[in-house]
Write a structure and sequence with these properties.
It is built from 13 helices and five strands. By secondary structure, the protein is α/β, with parallel strands linked by helices.
Length: 279
């Protein structure tokens, strides 16, 4: 599968963009099957999946999710041009933090209802280093603005040599998402994301103190409770905690963002817990 667009800023290739689309297919299940046929084994490995089956499971949830509609809305030419323009805008602002990396950005329509109603029409995943998947639900009229927020958040993950979506402790996840949201504020816009505003700073402190002894845990169910509201904690609590932790951490430091994005989250977490606790 060849990249359809190379994003070149100041003479340097920063990203390659691939659109998942089959314009004549609007049935979600057929869209997913058609998309899977476009990939070879090397694609699955380089984008962070162990097998075609693993990718198929991810891609099905990514595109369809939980929805109340039965029709995929393919990207028209103008939509694709708008997306490429937004990517160039974001990467131009973030040019400084790139070294020799080339980010792979894979973009697909999605009909996921949660993405439509709670994520501003856009969802994103960093499935492996230098790989970003972004789903867009065109039924949300504000998707363009939220696309840029999502892209820069996932970019922070993609540039880290330590980010591993499938093997992450709760503490590492909190640090990664805190870095991503503060990175967004530094380079793209100052507006807090919905997943940051969802929990106040005061409540974030309370929850952080409650889970402090579990920061090293890799329990998937607990992780889901803290980040996705599936248990005793509110939706997106982990994102809010991370945002305030990292904001507190960097306020008295002269941060070099190019280095900071590549720093081991375990080291940052130790400094946060023992040196600069959240207040």
């Amino acid at each position: 599968m060849k990249p359809e667009n190379k994003i070149i800023i100041n003479g340097k290739c920063l990203a390659e963009v691939i659109f998942f689309e089959t314009p004549k297919i609007t049935n979600p299940e057929e869209f997913v099957k058609s998309g899977l046929r476009r990939f070879d084994r090397n694609f699955f490995v380089t984008t962070g999946f162990n097998s075609k089956e693993d990718f198929a499971d991810f891609f099905t949830k990514f595109v369809i999710g939980k929805n109340e509609t039965s029709k995929i809305f393919p990207f028209e030419k103008k939509i694709k041009l708008d997306i490429i323009t937004s990517i160039k805008k974001v990467l131009k602002k973030c040019f400084y933090v790139f070294d020799k990396e080339i980010i792979k950005i894979l973009i697909s329509p999605t009909i996921d209802e949660f993405t439509l109603k709670r994520m501003g029409g856009v969802n994103g995943y960093c499935t492996s280093r230098l790989t970003i998947f972004i789903g867009i639900n065109l039924l949300n009229n504000n998707w363009k603005n939220n696309f840029e927020k999502t892209l820069v958040h996932e970019l922070a993950h993609a540039l880290s040599p330590f980010y591993d979506m499938e093997n992450m402790s709760i503490g590492e996840g909190i640090v990664f998402d805190g870095i991503a949201e503060n990175f967004k504020e530094k380079f793209v816009d100052k507006e807090k994301s919905p997943w940051v505003e969802s929990v106040s700073k005061e409540d974030s402190i309370k929850i952080f103190n409650d889970i402090k002894s579990k920061l090293g845990s890799r329990d998937v169910n607990l992780y889901s409770q803290i980040f996705f509201g599936t248990g005793k904690y509110p939706l997106w609590a982990g994102y809010s905690i991370g945002y305030y932790l990292i904001k507190n951490y960097i306020k008295s430091k002269n941060i070099d963002w190019k280095e900071f994005l590549r720093k081991d989250p375990k080291e940052i977490l130790k400094e946060i817990v023992f040196i600069s606790p959240l207040k």
